Model the fold of this input.
Amino acid sequence: MQHFSIWLLYLLVITPGMSLAANSPDSLPKTEHIAHGHYIGVHGMALLFAQDGSAYGHHLPLYTPPHDYQLVYQLRIIKSLSANGLKSQPNETSKAVSALKKHGLLTIKPEPFDLHRLIKGDTFKVKATVYQGHFERGGEALFSSEITFVKPIYREKIVLEQANQPRFVQVELNESETLIVHQITSRPSFDALWLTHHQSSQPKQATACIGISEIKEQDSYDWQRTFQYLSHCFAPPAYLEVQDFAQ
Done:
């Protein structure tokens, strides 16, 4: 798997059906897992789908150990997707994926497991519940299923350093799609991911996102302004979190 740092810009094709409001709870508290201090526990994830229907889980990172890792894993959902009228047989997974995308932001609440297994790159199975919205911020449970952590796509420990410019990492998922991750640095920062087509990796504007640090306020990035800024630079991110990385 090839991945490399990119310091300039890119154009993304957002995963269809992503909701802008679903990930912008400005008035809600920071995620509760900030209090977790053990590697064995509930390690929530954002659920993303590539154009080919492949599922990816993005560990919801924090500055506080043991959550100070940015981890993206390829997932396999074992059980037929079935919730709120969504039903499919295993050979109809693409239909269920398309239906799920319409729910906007999706997160996963797995049963407790050892985060070391993701950090080490293990393959293993857990039972989990998929939520519409953020499962720690009033999200609605859709269905439960056994999921398999198939293989790591991106694994990096958060480094608390001041970055002169935003740093983005590009990871090739397959022949046509790329995952792009914003590397989290010292407070205030933000967590953002995109799924793009290779042919859509050229910037919309030559210098747009280099100046994103100029829009941050004294203690944090504002979600709406950051989302709009990133959208104008490239296109809307598939996932964006700011409040867990405020001062």
